[in-house]
Amino acid sequence: NDAWGSDRFDRKRYPHPRAMIAKIHALHAHFMISVWPKFYPGTRHYKQLAAHGDMFTLPVKLGIKDWVGTGYAFGFYDPFSAAGRQLYWRQIQHSLAVLGVDAWWLDADEPDMVSNTSIAEREAFMTPNPLGPGAAVFNAYALEHV
Questions:
Q1: CA-based nearest residue to 110, from 96, 97, 92, 123
Q2: The whole model's pTM is what?
Q3: Which DSSP string do the residues of the chain spell out, in sequence order?
Q4: What per-residue confidence (pLDDT) applies to 111?
Q5: Where do the TM regions start and end (predicted)?
Q6: For 27-38, what is each residue's pLDDT tens digit?
Q7: Over the stretch 55-80, which tens digit does the pLDDT of each residue have?
Q8: Residue 58, Cβ neighbours under 10 Å: how many?
Q9: Any bridge partners for residue 56, and if so which?
Q10: pLDDT tens per residue, range 78-134
């Protein structure tokens, strides 16, 4: 589906996520969910981040598709922007934390924006950002993302 990054549960499979998580808590267990810094352009989160200049949009501009199904356009948010980080975590707070989620598995914080490409190409996908060229901050993505 084309909703990657929407932070919404599939209503067909999980019609009542808050109640589901409450049942898990009643069993004295915690609920962790995988969250990604990746968004599809049609999602509200992508649009909000892009409106503030806090998305790496080069893959979208180049027409690059991801590996899901037949492939979808995508972008990763820019954690080197303090405003971008704040918006990203506010989005997660408003869409997932309010449901009772206890922990986050921060997936794809390498970030593996485009698999099987050179380091130079991956660095280009992280340019521009507030700290300079992608080559200068490439290995710091995960540090800023958390």
A1: 123
A2: 0.90
A3: ---TTS----TTT-S-HHHHHHHHHHTT---EEEE-SEE-TTSHHHHHHHHTT-EE-HHHHTT-B-SSTT--B-EEE-TTSHHHHHHHHHHHHHHTGGGT--EEEETT-S--SSTT--HHHHHHTT-SBTTB-HHHHGGGHHHHH-
A4: 84
A5: none
A6: 999 999 999 999
A7: 999 999 999 999 888 899 999 999 99
A8: 19
A9: 76
A10: 999 999 999 999 999 999 999 999 999 999 888 878 878 888 888 899 988 999 898
The residue length of the chain stands at 146
The domains of the chain are located at 17-145
Q: Tokens 């019609």: give the residue.
A: 15
Homologous superfamily (CATH) of 17-145 is: Glycosidases (3.20.20.80)
